[in-house]
Amino acid sequence: MKRNLHLVIIEDEAATARNLEYILQEISPGIKVIATLQSITEAIDWFTSTNNAYDLIFSDIRLSDGVSFEIFKQVSIIKPVIFVTAYHDYAIEAFRNNGIDYVLKPFDREEIQRTLHKYNTLIAAGIKSEQAKTAPLLQEFHYNTKPYKKSFLIHYCGRLIPVEAVKINWFHTEHEIVYAHTADGKQYVVEFTLEQLEQELDPALFFRANRQFVINKNAVQAVEYFFNGRLLVNIQPAAQEQVLVSKAKAMHFRKWLDR
């Protein structure tokens, strides 16, 4: 008797990993998630020691300590991968790392069910050709990519006003309310979480600095070295609290600024 599907999830957002596991098991109760890995380091350690007793990997691309492709460069992984991410700018690289599909966040049950069906179809057909895997992916990528958010329609003083995303220097959250701060010093309440903004905004322009801040590259005035490998970011207009980037994100942040 064929055993149920065993999966590995690579995702640094615990809530996203739980949601994905819930959807997977709702689609097929027999699915078993045998490991949830939150970082490149953890994933490398796990795959190095495992005996390949899994069938499929769902992997985010941007993790807290870098880009997940580093895992595949350091560990030989032969099982197929479905990449689940908010950023489609890594699509081609994803295809080179055993990728059989590419799902953009925010995902839903229908999207996950579609990609599982695709996996089952490929396995049933015994398709192993890299060309057979990547050709349909390229076509789907062409049709499924979504534009980044360009503007916000904001409630302000009894009116609705459009505010361009590029004119927002930074977002921060306080008491579960998210505020947008523009270059001219104005502050607005936006009806998004930072997690949603991270998915909707252009990653070339906006960076999730920490749990409280998403910042616009144009708002960065200077970066200072801080304690324990962290970075202190000076932004304009100035925030009331320090904007710190963790040691784990510091290298990625510096590369982002240097692009």
Automatic annotation (TrEMBL):
Pfam families: LytTR, Response_reg. Keywords: Phosphoprotein. SUPFAM superfamilies: CheY-like (SSF52172). The modification 4-aspartylphosphate is found at D60. Gene3D superfamilies: 3.40.50.2300, LytTr DNA-binding domain (2.40.50.1020). The keyword DNA-binding does not apply. InterPro entries: CheY-like_superfamily, LytR-like, LytTR_DNA-bd_dom, Sig_transdc_resp-reg_receiver. This is LytR/AlgR family response regulator transcription factor.
